[in-house]
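#onboarding

Welcome to the new folks! Below is a worked example of what a typical request in this channel looks like: someone posts a single protein sequence, and someone else replies with the predicted structure as tokens. Don't worry about understanding the tokens yet, we'll cover that in week two.

Example request:
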Amino acid sequence: MSPVFFTIFGLEIRYYSLFILIGVFIAYFMMTKEAKRFNISADDIFNMFFWTMIIGIAGARLYYVVFNWEYFSSHISEIWQIWQGGLAIHGGIIFGLITIAIYTKKYNIRLIRILDMAVVPLILAQAIGRWGNFFNSEAYGVATSLNHLQSLHIPEFVIREMNINGIYYTPTFFYESIWCFIGFIILLVARKTKYIKIGQLTSIYMMWYGVGRFFIEASRTDSLTLLGFKVAQIVSIIMFIIGIVLFIIGLKKSKYEDLYNDTNVK
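Example response:
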């Protein structure tokens, strides 16, 4: 399968970039729509989103390059070629969070409110973005058999493309995409519940994605490592712990205190 969507004037537009852009536009639309409920300025959302995307993508690439420095130190020119793949979602989350924290601090906007609004479209964007890995033939797991893949009722076109040089591999990108989409549904439902507290949507996201990524990462063969440990698994454990703490903090509040859906609470 070609990773190139189309070519115009000699410029290749790749599926990897396409799926990232689709995820970004959908996330922005959802974020803007939710912000209206809480009378948050459209200009604030646009500016925050703009800088978060730029710095988040740069951070995702930096994170990937740092933990692959043995390779990139000898291939400096490839550092900028993000269309070839190589964006670490944890790096994007970390740098995106820092950007949002700085922006909300500067303009006196409540950080945790913004994060609650952001995690719902974020996890959907992650589900969509993983399909860019599919077209780049990356983010797959250990070798397996055709019979095993068929027994899991994985779509035939996915199984077909997991045959790389005559060997079938585990489609971990597919598992993560499905996991993120289920998480998106869970967060949508949770967001509509009457007594969900501010901060608890963020906590659910961190716990859900943390658990899923930890176990999916165990099967991947292209993981970033540090001292023999998979970095994504370490970060996922940290995310899960922080998520539990945030959720418990919400539970300790009174039934009607700091409700997410109370538009009068900033």
